[in-house]
Amino acid sequence: LCLDLADWDATEAAVGAAGPFELLVNNAAVAVLQPFLEVTRAALERSLDVNLRAVLHVSQIVARQMIAQGVPGAIVNVSSQASQRALRDHAVYCSTKSALDMLSKVMAMELGPHKIRVNTVNPTVVMTDMGRINWSDPQKSAAMINRIPLGKFAEVDDVVNSILFLLSDKSAMTTGSSLMVDGGFLVS
C-alpha cells in the first residue's frame, strides 16, 4: 500500500481492507529539525501526524482485526534513542518519539489481554542511504560516535534483527518494552 498516513480516512480505507494481520511494524517517520525557538506549526503538525497519529491509527485498525480474528499478534513501533535523550534542534522529533514510547506502553497494557504484544525498538543513527548522506562526514559524526561505546552507528540489519526478535515467539513474554539499538549511546 502506498498512501499518506497523515490522511486518516484514506488510511482507514486502505489498511482496513488489507488484512488479516498477525504482525505490524510501524516504521514511518519524519524528522523536521529546527531549534526550539524556531519550531513552526507546520513542522509540529506534520511530525505529530506521521510520528504519532499514524502509528496510533494504523495500530487501531490492525489490532481490531487481530481481536476480531481471535489470534495473538505482535506490534513493533520504531522509535529512537532521541526519545530518551535531548538532542539539539530535535525538540519536535524527540517529543514525538517520547510520546510514541508511552503510546506503546499503553497499547501493551490494553492489548495484552487480547494476546497482542507491543514493543518499541529505539535505534541510534542508522546507516540507511539517508543516514550515510547525513552522517558520513567524520567532522559531523565524530561527536555522536564518540558517545557510542561500540564506536559506530547502526546498520539496517541491526534494527531489522531486533524487530524480527520482537515479532517472533522468542520474545513471547516481552511487551511494553523498549529495545535500545544504540551501541550503548544512552549509557554514556
Tags for this model:
about 190 residues, 4-stranded parallel beta sheet, alpha/beta, Rossmann fold, about 45% helix, 4 strands, L-xylulose reductase (NADPH) activity, globular, single chain
Structure in words:
- There is one protein chain.
- With 188 residues, the protein is of the alpha/beta class.
- It has one domain: Rossmann fold (3-Layer(aba) Sandwich).
- Helices cover 47% and strands 12% of the residues.
- It is built from six helices and four strands, in the order αβαβαβαααβ.
- It has helices at 8-18, 41-69, 91-111, 129-135, 138-145, 156-167, and strands at residues 23-26, 73-78, 116-123, 178-181.
- A four-stranded parallel sheet has the order 1-2-3-4, sandwiched between helices.
- The protein is globular and about 50 Å long.
- The mean pLDDT is 95.
